[in-house]
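Handout, tutorial session.
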Amino acid sequence: MSDIIHLLPDYLANQIAAGEVVQRPSSVVKELLENAIDARATSVQLIVKDAGKQLVQVVDNGIGMSETDARMCFERHATSKIKSTEDLFRIRTMGFRGEAMASIGAVAQVELKTKPHGAETGTRLLVEGSTVAAQEPAAVSAGTSIAVKNLFYNVPARRNFLKTNAVEMRHILDEFQRVALAYPEVAFTLHHNDVEIFTLPAGKLSQRIVGVFGNNYKEQMAGCEEETPFMSVRGYIGKPEFAKKTRGEQFFFVNNRFIKSGYLNHAVMTAYEGLLPKDSHPFYVLFIDIEPERIDINVHPTKTEIKFEDEKTVYAIVHAAVRKSLGTHNIAPSLDFQSDVNFAPLQPIRMQHGGEGFEKEGTFPGFKVPSSPKKASASGWEQLYEPLRNGQPMQQQEERITSPSGMGLLDDTFAAPMTTSSKTLQVHHKYLLVQVKSGVMIIDQQAAQERILFEKYMASLQKKMVTSQALLFPQTIELSPADSALVKELRAEFQELGFQFEDFGGNTIILNAIPADVQAANEKELLEELIEQYKNNLATLKLDKRENLARAMAKRLASKLQPRMSDLEMNSLVDKLFGCEVPNYTPGGQKTLVIMELNQLHDLFQKG
């Protein structure tokens, strides 16, 4: 039998490695920016054309490379960072595996110009598909310039999988922001199609945050710092009142390397517990400094996921640091130890006579205190049987019934007339009960509204039948760079839904109109929630832009509709639900209704 195992050719091995390292233009941006940082650059320029498909160029003033190093950097597993096994556990640089340049050179046309400081001449190197096309001396500036042209030119299938320019540019912005935030002492610039996007001078972290996200961040940042023998935490968190409906500006850096960690995010969110509105997300940029021996960063090709030796301790310190910062800046509620609570003067409570007892004036409207609890205790239960004594059916009795304790058995907010003529009954403002031939149908009110709205918006997007309402006062909305790029990418779809906006420069838009059936209030919050839901769908589902946006719009609006409904509104909701193509489920697969058969109801009351 002949041998069948053989070594892969270098160009093919590099292309396989490129499949992990170079997934899109932003992958190239990440690797080149990190190389510039490792080269101890103090100024870095990023130049992009056609969202990186045509050109990604990084120019730095770092230490540069010799002629031999320039050639060696394109070899597989060639690195200046690792010399022994022990070095793997003391990594403080950004790159170390020596795969990036070899992978990039395998799927693009690369021009490298470099010169060490003090050298008379530099080196120019051309690489195409892992092959060195030319190498020659050149008169260049000190530092390194790497131009990556025509990405995936020799792998058409990979190039066809690239998204639109707006999508790819959004990913490039993400990578650029992460590196720029991690190294505020380094000056950065970004140009796209000869247009300047960012100019970030070297400075403090607070200045870099404002430079990246905008001047409105000046007043919402609170410093965060905690030193322990195990690790240290430093950075900035956002004040609760500035929390957004999108979770974009949340960054963790471990030893200046950006990471993604739902575990640490939970530590931050629990520190904010009780301070944030529902579905709101605070801003934070937090740096964790820890001994390299206590972490493992070599667990993911992009190195955005790491393992901690002691995760629970890291969690506790991050949580304590954020909580301390909130207390230091008088954001979190705290006890006043200066006053003696035993002798605090009592505040007079003004009472006014209400319909049934006394109602406290001011803060808690609707909370009713019985005028005579003892009297209610004596007669409360008797009220349950009063209708029967008078010959009235129970369902027609709409008077408030109080328990012996004086609290309402049926609170006013949950009371609903149960007349025999009503087709549909609302339960706790969440569910609808409908009598059907086989038993009882229970409808989830919010899920039903989500299905109805989704099909409505999908029809609107397909037929391009736009109905908008102009805002009396157009809203100026400032977005993060990533969200701004997303909104511009979805401009056509937003307009087909009924949103009308125009660019105001930078990352700011002016919202002039919203869909006709959306209540005109908190337009900025609506847009932020819509973007957040769209991004959540994008991360978990494979959907086209229209369906994703329709799902996001339906889910967000369904959660905001008024829960209390009249008989007419309830019956209309049921009719609309069964007018849908798929009435049984929401777009996300949640049930909108269940049916309890008569025999199931009968079994509930059978004796065991």
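The second record follows below. Compare its token runs with those of the first.
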Amino acid sequence: MSIEVALARLNEAQQQAVTTAAKQTLVLAGAGSGKTRVLVHRIAWCLSEGLASPTGVLGVTFTNKAAAEMRGRIEVLLGRPLGGMWVGTFHGIAHRLLRTHWREAHLPEQFQIMDAEDQQKVLKRVIRGLNLDNEQWPAKEAQWFINARKDEGQRPDQVDDGADPAIRTMIDIYRAYEEACARAGLVDFGELLLRGYELWRDNDDLLRRYRERFFHVLVDEFQDTNALQYKWLKLLVADQANFFVVGDDDQSIYSWRGAQVENMQRFRRDYPQHELIKLEQNYRSTATILDAANALIANNTGRLGKKLWTDGERGEAIRLYTAYNDVEEARYCVDRIRRFHAEGDRYADSAVLYRTSAQSRVMEDALRQADVPYRVHGGFKFYERAEIKDALAYLRLAMFRDADPAFERVINLPVRGIGNRTVDEIRLVARREKISLWAAAYRLIEHHELAARAANMVLAFLHLIDTLAARIAGLALDGVLETVIETSDLVAHYRKEKGDRGLDRIDNLNELVAAARDFEPDENETELPLVAAFLSHAALEAGEGQAGEFEDCVPLMTLHAAKGLEFTNVFMVGLEEGLFPHQRSSTDPGQLEEERRLCYVGLTRARRRLTLSHAESRRLHGADFYPQASRFLREVPRQLLEEVRVGGAALSGGARLIEETSGSGLFLGQRVMHRTFGEGIVLHLEGRGAHTRVQVNFEGGVKWLVVAYAGLAAL
């Protein structure tokens, strides 16, 4: 295909972006507007017109996959392979520079790159070397501090401690960490970019060579750049290069990892002669979905401003589903997915998006019960998550002292000063004597075969487990899990992880309590004590693999993980105040706007059908909550919505209402009386007419009954 033919297939705004003569260009590319297509065609056009050679182009994106795809598409457009063109991620390009100019960068020729796990190990040694308590100064917290400073382009001497002793100590750790890395020839990911920036900043001749070489610098996902990445680009571009950036300020959702949406505005200020081109025609979603997204995001201030549109179909109304509780919300979504599948859609055409990973547990349960294959995208199934395994390991060890895997998992979690050497000694005795690790630990202590400090730490751990076992005796299952989490101090441990990750882990631990409260043994587990049955259930769920990568299955993912993807049908669940927008963001105007951008990203993932849902009650943090519907729902014009409810009354507002009933005369939330089980509340309905199956929460537990034989009386 010639470049002329390729250009003719672009819309007017895309053609303008590809062929602009402006020296600096900001392409404001809305969701589904073909931004990657524009970037690829821009490079191909510059090469075909003789405006640049392959060696004079620098293309920067955020993933290796995107970089490889970009290069491949350019070669297809031009009909020839390209040598010498640099297309890669920020870190990949910086790594290439440092390998070439290791001497000028003051690095050993064979320097080694550390991943996040290796970085933590180095930091643990550094913290011990400074005679600091690992509990008070955890390596994960130091890692977050150092990486954040590097993202800002700051070395230890450039960090202002604000007269805060804690920050001063962190600066000391940062300085000692740098010295340790220098001695060992180690470079972390943040160091790649910072050292690459300093390489150019401190070597005028070298910088001049690269400025003369890269006459065209193009950047994808510009809204996701951090402070140092922008400084790095600005230093290279100066005033002579053609600077072409593509981004969408309405899709900037990564501030928690350093992204600065303000870089869009900085570009406009730093390059006042730039050309601004807006890509607003959407090739993905129906007009109804786009109208909803436009109305929602218009509530954010300080936007560069654009309005998505399509010349495609108007499409179906957006379904707004009000569930009685989170369990019923999940079942409704699964029922719809099964219906779509029966009508010819693949399971993979229907995605379920949620704000926090803890929400996946109820959805996973509903999909499993319906025998619908699924896959958690970009994460683990609920019972596979590390924090869940940690809590269950404590419980398993409290119940069964011979549970060696559980013993090994938690003996030093949270960190309590029991080192690998001590654990190795325990393992050695256990193997030699053919006894459990628990028994081996006691034997070593009784025979004084451990150093005094190690013996005290191990004994404290053994007493902790004994104390835990005594505390959980006789408690209800959810009380057992609450006590495990509290006694093990896991919440405090994970709270030390900065950013959303640690808080998400805590949410997952709280969701584990909710799972325990909802747990009912199946027919294979009824002979076991309830705690043992729950542990067996968790182990089986963790061991049961997800659907394969290429198997037709329903994708489950957080809204953050959904960015860049699209699906025929999208279910956005949990649109409630305190959940979405998250309670951590609802009082901060800037964070609230990012939450709204996240909602906008979710809406624009849908091609054909979009379902938004919220629950009147939800189990969170081990307790029942009765949240208000999310403010984001009120920001979607009511005429675009079709409200759906199984029984009960309609929500307020002017939207159309679909009332899905079972024909049984019962509705969700209804109070009923049974001659044997007493008074209860209807939780779920399946089927129609007299053969409807009804789930009722009685004082003695939850029961499934057939309406024709149950003899239920409405109260």
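Points raised in discussion: The mean pLDDT is 88.
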